[in-house]
Specification:
single chain, alpha/beta, TIM Barrel, eight-stranded parallel beta sheet, five-stranded mixed beta sheet
């Protein structure tokens, strides 16, 4: 498949050389002393008083070349392990919203660990999502168990790869201990470590904070699967231009990648970004902007230049409900990313500029994810699929519906959505005139009303609860009062629709 691109080869080369110039002449503010010392040991110019680190071009080139061309994200069940790049993009939920739309009241509230358990159950059963990037925070987390209260219900209810960020190394160690308990022993876990982390090592512009940089080094040193995300904001933390943003965030990615390889050569990375432009009318955070997709297209080109996987936060929205705005914002940027060759898309379930999760939105996004994969699967052109012999045999004014080939292809040639409505208006009205949000919530409820095949066995759960006193329940169960929408479907016999194209007598 040929990928769409904005940049010429010369443009890509310029962005790379300009990034090297920034790192060598300007450098980064590095708040972590261990990181500064590591950079100094590997040939960088370090001023401990100002905390500035300048990275010579030859140093950056040496270490970024050590980055492997693939990354593997692991799930509790090995059949869900993901190694990419691959033919189809890996699609994950978006993460870390503080709020959730309550499916009973329809109002936003603080999210809890129970919500995470239910979302994990849904993601486990929704085929569009390959990974659960933990969608919300947990407002009910006990003291000292902030991210444990997120990872535990997520891993308890989802066999696919699970990831989120942690505050510091101590939290990371706590989560890794959880992994050992799930696996049954430290040896079993480290033979195939199935917990994945994320971090934001760079605070744009050109700053490395203490804790996330500490996390970066810890993950690399210990062979823990993790990837960084660069999240600049055009007009505030980067120049207000697509090219300017690309140049500075490329330099930031190279810096993070260099430190990771200094920590352990061969550390897997994703060229992963959440580039956002501020709406300069009021400074509003605008992750639903079409420019996000445009930036991701350029990111894909830079990633291919560096021979690493490309990823990005696409399909986000500023809308507060699954309306038309959510539809076009969630559809356009991931489609552009897929056409540009993106390998990893973080998109599902969130509204309101990443602040709020919605169960209905998640199931809608599941269909968007499947359509994106359909696009990326390509045309599948071949002499056989061109069907010349079939066309000749059927002939003029013929009908292809009854052909054996049509029957063979009916479930594979096109994507058949469950939630998108394709009925005639009369039938839709007769069946209750439902909205896609109502149908989506009913689908989510239907899934949550069935037993979860991912749930821990009693022995595993008891082992975890003995280790972490007072840990949240972590069980998936239908919230009290959540009932399906009743569309009041009636069977009505109608007169045959009049063909308006015919002249009326």
């Amino acid at each position: 498949m040929q990928f769409f691109s904005y940049l010429t080869d010369e443009d890509v080369e310029y962005v790379h050389s300009a990034s090297l110039e920034i790192l060598e002449e300007v450098g980064l503010l590095v708040r972590n002393e261990k990181a500064r010392n590591r950079c100094a040991e590997h040939g960088c110019v370090v001023d401990h008083e100002t905390e500035m680190v300048q990275l010579p071009a030859h140093v950056v080139e040496k270490y970024r070349a050590m980055t492997p061309p693939t990354i593997t994200l692991r799930g509790r069940d090995p059949k869900y392990d993901l190694t990419f790049p691959r033919e189809l993009p890996v699609i994950a939920t978006a993460s870390s919203a503080p709020d959730i739309v309550d499916p009973v009241t329809g109002k936003a509230r603080r999210a809890t660990s129970d919500d995470i358990a239910n979302i994990a159950h849904l993601v486990n059963e929704l085929p569009g999502f390959d990974m659960f990037s933990i969608s919300t925070l947990a407002d009910d987390a006990p003291t000292g168990q902030f991210n444990l209260s997120r990872f535990y219900p997520a891993l308890k209810n989802c066999l696919k790869p699970v990831r989120t960020s942690v505050l510091d190394v101590e939290e990371a160690k706590q989560i890794l201990k959880l992994g050992e308990l799930i696996a049954g022993s430290p040896e079993a876990f480290w033979e195939r470590p199935f917990i994945n982390f994320g971090y934001c090592a760079i605070v744009s512009p050109l700053t490395m904070d203490f804790d996330s940089t500490e996390n970066l080094m810890f993950f690399a040193e210990n062979g823990v699967t993790a990837y960084g995300t660069i999240a600049p904001m055009g007009g505030l933390s980067t120049p207000l231009s697509l090219s300017g943003m690309l140049t500075i965030m490329n330099a930031e990615w190279l810096a993070a990648c260099t430190l990771a390889q200094m920590s352990k050569a061969g550390t897997e990375q994703i060229y992963n970004f959440l580039p956002v432009f501020a709406d300069m009318r009021d400074g509003a955070y605008a992750p639903g902007a079409i420019e996000i997709g445009m930036m991701n297209s350029a990111v894909c080109q830079m990633a291919r230049f560096y021979n690493v996987p490309a990823g990005g936060y696409l399909g986000l929205t500023n809308s507060k409900t699954p309306d038309a705005q959510a539809g076009f914002e969630k559809g356009m940027s991931p489609l552009l990313g897929a056409a540009s060759g993106v390998d990893f898309i973080v998109m599902g379930g969130l509204q309101d500029a990443l602040m709020t999760f919605d169960f209905g939105q998640l199931t809608i996004d599941n269909e968007i994810a499947q359509m994106i994969k359909k696009v990326r699967g390509g045309f599948g052109f071949s002499k056989e699929s061109a069907s010349l012999a079939e066309i000749k045999k059927t002939g003029a004014a013929g009908m292809f519906a009854a052909n054996p080939a049509t029957l063979e292809r009916m479930h594979t040639a096109t994507f058949m959505p469950e939630l998108a409505d394709r009925k005639l208006r009369e039938q839709w009205e007769d069946e209750g005139a439902s909205t896609i949000q109502q149908r989506a919530l009913n689908k989510a409820l239907d899934i949550l009303s069935t037993a979860n095949p991912a749930a821990f066995d009693l022995e595993t759960d008891a082992r975890i609860r003995r280790e972490f006193e007072g840990i949240v329940a972590g069980d998936s169960q239908v919230p009290e009062g959540w009932v399906p929408f009743d569309f009041g479907i009636e069977v009505i016999t109608r007169k045959k629709r009049v063909n308006r194209r015919r002249k009326q007598a």
